[in-house]
Structures are given as structure tokens and as C-alpha cells.
Amino acid sequence: MESKGSWTVADAVDYNGLPADKSKTGGWITAALILGIEVVERLSTMGIAVNLVTYLMDTMHLSSSSSANIVTDFMGTSFLLCLLGGFLADSFLGRFKTIAIFSTIQALGTGALAVATKLPELRPPTCHHGEACTPATAFQMTFLYIALYLIALGTGGLKSSISGFGSDQFDDKDPKEKAQMAYFFNRFFFIISVGTLMAVTVLVYIQDEVGRSWAYGICTVSMGIAIAVFLFGTKSYRYKKSQGSPVVQIFQIIAASIRKRKTELPQSIVYLYEDTPEGLRIEHTDQFRMLDKAAVVTEGDLEQTLDGIAIPNPWKLSSVTRVEEVKMMVRLLPIWATTIIFWTTYAQMITFSVEQASTMRRNVGNFQIPAGSLTVFFVAAILITLAFYDRVIMPFWKKWKGKPGFSSLQKIAIGLVLSTAGMAAAAIVEQERLSVAKTSTQKTLPISVFLLVPQFFLVGAGEAFIYTGQLDFFITQSPKGMKTMSTGLFLTTLSLGFFVSSFLVSIVKKVTATSVSEGWLADNINHGRLDLFYWLLVILSGINFVVYVICALWFKPTKGKDSEEKENGKSFSVEDC
């Protein structure tokens, strides 16, 4: 007869705080209840982002560059706030409360956006082609910003906890449940793709042909239903206790090493403090030796408890393993920095590329494709690339090299190359579009929008490689206790990529504008040189790739228990997120 412990999950509790009973909590059904919120989050965020630039230009009467910057700042903030959501979930709220609170905030944001796009008082008067248009007032833009950044706040909180709370519903020490977890996360990625596809097709079509307020109202109602479904499973979920934020550990070690900056390091590492159990220790490394000073025992580092036991003050003394965990995070930073530029090129796919599409012939028979829906080729490229990699490249690579596929660093390199090629294709097409614009007086230029497909496809294929490569790298090369933080670090590359795009647009517009010309990024892209901006991104991406290769060659993974498991065949899976 099985022991009672085999029917409970060691590191999880139920709604009442008791050990989680496997027969009554967790599993595939409860995990599925979480997916609805992720679908609606993708539907709302991507549906807004890919078509927002046309609303800002055509309805709010803002310039091309200002519209692009508003979109990239919105997306950048959404990803940056993942760090806040992760910190709150790890330190205070737990994942369940974080999801419930931030999904409600996002619903409030989409509701406010529906109101902003419905009421005439919240947008400037309509103007027609050739007329002087009145831009939106400060009050109208303020209301729009409040709606957008409520959505960004909600998105940030959700992204940091959804996948983790899903993995909490499975016991990774139970072979059967571990297999179910892998199945769940395969479906999780598929669900994200379905949400994105619905956003760039159905939702964008409703925005353009029925009304934006209807589209955003649908998002609000959908999120309300998803929250209700999520809360329905409250008593069936498994909950894991918060272990505190790793950010505190990092600050503790930095503080201790600065405090002991004048202390000499011992000649042998055996004199450094270590209290981690033997099987969980991380091998000492010689890099970043300044941090090793946090493990040097000095007077006052140990404090007496009421029982007379001496314990270290974590702000003054840390173990070698805790120091090495921080070193592991520091080693990730060069790779982290050299992947930011990819997301800067990605930002062009939902800003200037959509603007390009809005000026081109988009008819298929009597049906006109919404400009924002061109990103469907971007999503299709991701799905096709992933399927091709799984079905063709991985079997071939395993047969030829004896490995299950490309390494995470190789995937990132491929993604960077493809995105650079995508920007080069975008520049060439833009040169052709501008040559047509010079000889045409029509609002819709006599040039097919399908010329934009290569740039969407190349950058989309690049994302398939770089996203999975980054996620794999940041999870597998980070300490076990800092995996949530490392996922947040990965997401900040997306955030900073969007912010770098906004910065570049502002700088290029300022530097290239003259008294007789609006420069490369004119208010009307037919009067600018967007192609030169794209070529600038090609050059920056090329330089960045060289730096990335140097950083990838420099990077050496830390040896320890986790590393040994990976070398012995333990593969990365999304449940580690």
C-alpha cells in the first residue's frame, strides 16, 4: 500500500494551506483553466500593438515617428513591468494573487481604451485627405495614455506568473505528472500563437471594419470571462510558497563585497565561507573575484541566535555557492546585451512596416487586407520555422552530429542573422516603394503589399530561433533559485529593444531633419527616407552580431550539479519557466 506522502506534493499546499492532495488538486484540468487568461492577454496586447500606429496617425493625427514611438514605448513598458510582476509574485503576493490582480488591471485598461475610441470628445475632429488636420489635445492623449499603460501594467504582471503558475499544478518528481507538464507547455506555446493569430486577423479586421470600440470591448468582456474561469478553480489549484526575491540576494552579495573591498582574499578557496550542503554546491570560479570577498569571514559577520548558534548576517557574509550564483547571473549579461538589437528590428514590424502596408495596394479580389493584418505572415513564419526545426532540422542534426538540435547560443546567432537579412529586405522594398511614390499622386500606391512578405517572414523566422534560444539560455545557465529572475532578465531584452527603437527614431529624426526637409522619418513616409533608417539598422545589427560572436566564445557555463545534469542529457523544457 502506498504511503500517504505519495499522494501529496512535497513543496505545494492546497487552498486551505494543507499539503496538496494529488487526487484533489492540480493536474491538467486545473492548468487548463489558466490558459484562458493567456489567450486573452495575447489577443488584447498584440491586437492593440499591431494596429495602434494607424489609429494614432489617421484618427489622433500624430506624426509617423511620434506614432511609432508611442507604440514601441507601450510595448517596451509592458515587458519591463514583467520584472515588477515577478518581484511581487516572488516576495509578497504569490502567483495566484498576482495573476488575479493584474488580469483585472488589464481588463480595466482595455475597457478604458474602448471608451477612448468610442467617445467623440476623446479624439480630434475627422479630416480628409489633403486637409490640414487638428492633432489630439493634451487631455485626449492623457486619457489614451492612461488606458494603454493600464494594459501595459496588467500585461507585465501576467507574463511573469502565468507559465510558472501552470507548472505549479504538476509534480515534477512524479514521472506521470512530469509528462503531463511537458504536454501542457507544448499546448501553452500553441495557445499563445493562436491568441496572436486571432489578434492580427480577426481583431484587426473588427477594428478596421466594425469599430475599434467594439474590438476593445470584446477584449474586455473576454478577459472578464477568463478571470471568472480562472477564479472558478481557486480551490483546486496547488500553491507554492514564495521563497523571496533573488534581487535581495544579489544586493546582499554586492553590499558585502563592497564593505570588504579592502580585505585581502585568502590564497586558497578552502578558507572562504561555505554552508551549502555538499550535493547542492557550485564549483568556485576565478572570474569576478571582487565578489569572492563577500565569502571572506571577518569580525562581526556572524551573529548569535537565542540558542547560542552562530549564523551569518547575509548582508555581511555569503557562502561561496551564493556568490557563484550571482556570478552566473553576471555572466549572462554580455549575451543579454547583444540580443537587444533583435527586438529593435522586431519593433519595426509593428510600426513602420504597418505604415508601409497602409500606403500600398492590399486588395485580394474585392477584399482589402487591413494593414495591421500583414503581421499574420510574421506569425506564420514563426509557426512554420518551429515545425521545420522540430520535424527536419532536429532529426538531421541528431543523425549527423549526435545532438538533439542547435545549442541555445547557435539559435540566437541564427536569429540575429535572419533579422539582419529581414531589415536588408525591408530597405530594398522601401526603395522600390519610394520610387513609385515619387511618380504617383494616389493615396494608395500602385504597388503590391505582398512585397513586404519577405521582411515579415525573415524577422519572424528569426524570432522563432532567438526567442527559444534566449529562453533556453537564460533558464539553463541561471541558478535554480533565480530562474524566475532570469526569465525576467530575458524579457527585459524585449523591453529595451523597443526603447532603443524609440531612441533611434528620435535621434535620427532630429539629426536628419533640415529647414527644407523633414529628414529620413518624415510625418508622411512617402516624403522621407525610411529605407536609409532600415539600412542603419542593418549596419548596427551587423556590428552587434560580431560583438555577439565574441561574447558567445567568451562565455563558459558554470560547473555544478545543474550543469552536470544538462551534460548527462537533461534537456531544457518550457516548464522551467
TrEMBL record:
Keywords: Membrane, Transmembrane, Transmembrane helix. It comes from the Eukaryota. GO terms for molecular function: transmembrane transporter activity. It is a multi-pass membrane protein. One of its GO terms (cellular component) is membrane. GO terms for biological process: oligopeptide transport. Its main location: membrane. It holds the Pfam family PTR2. InterPro entries: MFS_trans_sf, POT_fam, PTR2_symporter_CS. It is found in: Membrane. Belongs to the major facilitator superfamily. Proton-dependent oligopeptide transporter (POT/PTR) (TC 2.A.17) family. This is Protein NRT1/ PTR FAMILY 6.2 isoform X1. It comes from Raphanus sativus. The gene is LOC108812927.
